[in-house]
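Hi L.,

You mentioned the student needs an example of a multi-chain input paired with its predicted structure. This one should do, with 895 residues in total across all chains.
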Amino acid sequence: MSEASVLKTALSISGASCQGCAKKIRHALEPLTGSTERVEVNLEDQTVALPENVDSAEAARIVTEAGYPAEPLVHNEPIGSCCASKNGKSAADKAPDSDTPAASTDVEPSDAGDGQIALAVSGATCASCVNTIEKALMSVPGVTHAHMNLADSTATASGDADPQALVQAVESAGYGARVIEDADAADDRKQEEDKKQYKVLLVKMAISLGLGLGLMIWGMGFGSMMVTEANQLTWINLGILTLGVMIATGGHFYTGAWKAFKHHNANMDTLIALGTGTAWLYSIVVASAPEALPEMARHVYFEASAMIIGLINLGQALELRAKGKTSEAVRRLLDLRAKTARVIRDGQEQDIPVEEVQKGDRIRVRPGEKLPVDGVITEGSTRIDESMLTGEPMPVGKGEGDEVSAGTLNTHGSIIYEATRVGSETALAQIIKLVKKAQGSKPAIGRLADKISSVFVPTVMLIAVMSALVWYNVGPEPAVVHMMVAATTVLIIACPCALGLATPMSVMVGVGKAAEYGALIRQGDALQTAGKIDLVILDKTGTITEGHPAVTRVHAANGDETRLLALAAGLEQHSEHPLAEAILDRARENDIEPEPVSGFEALNGKGVQGKLDSEPVRLGNRRWLEAEGLSVEALDDAAATITREAGTPLFLAVGQQVLGVIGVADSIKPDSEAAIRRLHDAGIKVMMVTGDVDATAKAIAAKAGIDDYRAEVLPEDKAEVVSEMRGKGHTVAMVGDGINDAPALAAADVGFAIGTGTDVAIESASITLMRGSLHGVPDAIEISRATVKNIHQNLFGAFIYNSLGIPVAAGLLYPVWGILMSPILAGAAMSLSSVTVVSNANRLRLFKASHTKVSAEERN
Amino acid sequence: MTTFLVNAGGLALMAAIVWWFWLSGSNSDNSDQHH
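Structure written out for the whole complex:
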């Protein structure tokens, strides 16, 4: 598509940099256009073409919501107000210093962290904070997309904004911020800061709860919470003491609330500040001028203000500790890194810090040591434990020429290898980057929660005032006390912290858990969609099968199998085809010397031929040999057996005599069948696409337990099969490994790149499986289902808490049972709700995939 | 009189909340479209 397609309304977008993004945009627009086919995404121009009758403003809104800031590209005037710039300029001619937060198209998109500025944010506690911070970042010129992750307190801004301007924007919105330059150092620093913060919160909690409890005990046990002439001065003094403690232990709530207020925002701090502030103000009025109120209303609530702050501090401390646990997966990956490397330079072995290792350095690794960087073995052989990266439990044999990865463990022999990738280029560094990015991404369900919470706090404030008025007008005496208690309790109980934490906490644990199982999830959306998959389409070669054909059967017409193999090997030694490899491997295994065949020639789609002592030697398929006038009928039975076993029969003829048939098959991976069974158990249909002939495909499908297959599918047609299945209403996962699978991976709802897939396949897939086993697919699906379930539980809990808590706090139960909730109880309930959400997310850490359970049972 | 003042004050406060958080302000009017 290009902008030249004048008949279609075009959108300008930013941030879409891969086929996965294009797919996401197409799917997002599907409800509007009726079909993904009617949406064209041009990644190069960063534009989207749509049918003319589609409302481009609505389309821009949808695409923006999908995570790619978009604007209608109109040449007259903006179609809608939502995403068009305020000054009426189109995206193309918009000034870069525009102060509207809309996207500008002249900024290079970023996807894999390039062009993104990461900030460590402090003071963000709830969903409203997320909105405030994202809004603040979007208002900085040059920012195309902003994202705040509450779970690890980081924010990222895409575009070409000035980092200091971003810091200032966040700070002026009421939060602390600093630019993360070195992600690793930032992690360590954050851990340190969190520890310190945890202690500070506990101390603050002790002081404020101590005062609150003390006042309560004193008031109830020795004096009275009612102000009288005798205790008026004492209460005034206690009120001033309470104010001091409130500022010392909860000052951050008041400053946060004020900064948010100045920006027309309201957040959790606003509710706490208003709640505790109202209670204190009322109490100090009572203490200073009791005669202004009826006698029944002369009750003070200083203890409530202090205790609420204490309880919220306690909740935040517990939350901080639980949050630390959710990032365990990344920390475990970080811990895999070796600190030093034994490098051989000028014939001398020396231990140097891993940061100083350069490409081309030769490194010695002894048994029991971790590999410091990626490289290729040049001397020695060993077994390497790659379980930490791939989840593959058995150490893998490696010899000269084999690639090895940083972070894996040398279990056996001593090896020397040459460094090929160092520092941030190593596979381990890439994995860490990917996991961190995915952990911070927000699935659609999370965006919904954010949207709700952005209007939530002001709404709660309205409810608080309304309930106060109702109590004043129709409530029993002392009306003024009741209205104050109801308003304070509503404000305190309604904090949306649980709502804000519900999604990011679960995503963080879920993505980390998937990484533990060797599945790298690229976006939060993939995590959500993977749980809904009902059809898995598998590529055959390299996915279900090993990807390296092997000889399964050798049948000589005259019984001389050695000569048959020698002739075949003589021909195939000139070929580089995988089938040739298989035949040569078998000949080598049996110590058979290849015959000296000359004049080699490969005939596409037929076979290979050469000459032995001027006699033609042919090895190929039946059709070709029969076309050459040779009869292979005598070998029909053997050929049928080979086909039945999912092999390909290759007939060998010397001159006009057919000597025999060799069966070559790509054997099914030992655990493919079990993995497919697990998919069936999860209620998922499994389909295979392959370029093989029908008979072979049928045999493989039967052997592996596959429900349905499509044979003789050209690589470029795989994507069509995927689209067809999606058209039938399936939520489709495509699993593949090669470059030719990339379009199909991108066309699927969720693409899985398997094992040592090519970079293109990995780029097009939303989930990458680090080991070759198909078990990664059911693992990832099970983890997704568990994570989505966990998010639902969290959101349900948070919504229920608020929707039940607010009416009770407002006093709805009073007319029936005479119950009016205390503000202190509201504070405790609010803290408990966040702690519950975080703990529930942490439960996911105990998740075990079904095959792990099965194998554990089998062992017992 | 007190009743009138309290109710009028409450309604004014509600109107102020609506005005401050929804109707006025440079960045609250377009935030939803971006997130």
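You could point out the following to them. Residues 26-35 of chain B have pLDDT under 50 and may be disordered. Chain B touches chain A through 23 residues (CB under 8 Å).

Best wishes,
N.
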